[in-house]
Design goal:
The two termini are 14 Å apart. The mean pLDDT is 88. The radius of gyration is 17 Å and the shape is rod-shaped. By secondary structure, the protein is mainly α. Helix 1 runs antiparallel to helix 2 (47-74). The protein has helices at residues 2-37, 47-74. The protein contains two helices and no strands. It has one domain. 85% of the residues lie in helices and 0% in strands.
Length: 75
């Protein structure tokens, strides 16, 4: 059980990092597009980066919860 939880923690840590990187890439692409073409008032910039950062928080929360469960099982 503990081994599986540790593997899940590692997986969610990697997913957290991947969501962070994807969110930052989306942020820089949006900024570059705005610099090059300007932003129309009705254009929804930042939707992908907001989604990625939301996923990052979710994955990070699950990983922390799993760490707490492993710590509780170890004691």
């Amino acid at each position: 059980m503990t081994f599986v939880a540790i593997l899940l923690i590692g997986g969610f840590a990697v997913a957290t990092a991947a969501a962070l990187v994807r969110g930052l890439i989306a942020f820089f692409k949006d900024a570059e597009h705005i610099r090059a073409h300007g932003a129309a008032p009705d254009t929804a910039f930042g939707a992908k980066q907001n989604r990625m950062m939301t996923q990052r928080v979710l994955f990070q929360g699950i990983a922390i919860l799993l760490v707490v469960i492993v710590a509780a099982l170890a004691s």
